[in-house]
Amino acid sequence: CVILDVWAACQDATVTQELLKEGFHRDLLVKVELGVLGEDAGGCAVAARTRLPPGIYVDPYELASLQQHNLTKAVLIPDVIDVEAPEYLATDLLLLLYMEPDPRCSRCFKAALPVHGRYHRPAEESEEALIVLKSPEVLVCCCDNHLSAECWKPAEVEAPCSGKTDSPCQWYSVTHKPAYEESILQVPVGLRQHSSLVCVVTLLATVLCSTLILAAVCKHGHFS
């Protein structure tokens, strides 16, 4: 577990959530600065719990690869996700993102994770869809000690403390002050008046590619 500094009284945590890059493929960056934790807050892990709306998702295969290389630690609920589903057929996801200490600040933690926008229905006017991502909840899990009841409240989290083992551990939620109440993700969407043009171009491209493939097979293929 991450070792936290010991303080004498309770203070709110400060949370900053950013969506980096543009378009459908982004990086979710979460930063947490913990306040004063109390004298019994040694040996704890820190995580951010957030609910991802249907318009945004984490690729479980990409996450598994990142975790295999120790580049991030996270738990997805549910862990089976249809990455091809459009926004209007998808459901919410619960993400528990384990934080790492920030070497530039003794009470600061941060974590980053790739997220992806889903395709939306074509719109009438706007060429962008807005996805609202609420500020995450700050959680702390102590393996050896119990946190002060005045500062922390028990939270129901079905995830191990360290992110590596299945050992049970009690998570606690801390009151926090988000830098922003929500983050807005903008993803491109098509316009309904372009539907006919898109269908025609797609059909022509399909016919052309199929013809080229068939011609190459007939020219270079070996048939018995």
UniProtKB/TrEMBL annotation:
Keywords: Endoplasmic reticulum, Glycoprotein, GPI-anchor biosynthesis, Membrane, Transmembrane, Transmembrane helix
Compartments in which it is found: Endoplasmic reticulum membrane
Membrane topology (UniProt): Single-pass membrane protein
Primary subcellular site in the record, as a coarse category: endoplasmic reticulum
Highest rank taxon of the organism: Eukaryota
Keyword Transmembrane part of the UniProt annotation: yes
Keyword Endoplasmic reticulum: yes
Membrane-spanning parts: 195-218
Pathway as given in its UniProt record: Glycolipid biosynthesis; glycosylphosphatidylinositol-anchor biosynthesis
Any one annotated GO CC term: endoplasmic reticulum membrane
GO BP terms: GPI anchor biosynthetic process
PANTHER family, A to Z: PHOSPHATIDYLINOSITOL-GLYCAN BIOSYNTHESIS CLASS X PROTEIN
Family: Belongs to the PIGX family.
Function as written in the Swiss-Prot or TrEMBL entry: Stabilizing subunit of the glycosylphosphatidylinositol-mannosyltransferase I complex which catalyzes the transfer of the first mannose, via an alpha-1,4 bond from a dolichol-phosphate-mannose (Dol-P-Man) to the glucosaminyl acyl phosphatidylinositol (GlcN-(acyl)PI) intermediate to generate alpha-D-Man-(1->4)-alpha-D-GlcN-(1->6)-(1-radyl,2-acyl-sn-glycero-3-phospho)-2-acyl-inositol and participates in the sixth step of the glycosylphosphatidylinositol-anchor biosynthesis. Probably acts by stabilizing the mannosyltransferase PIGM.
Name of this protein: Phosphatidylinositol-glycan biosynthesis class X protein
Organism: Spizaetus tyrannus
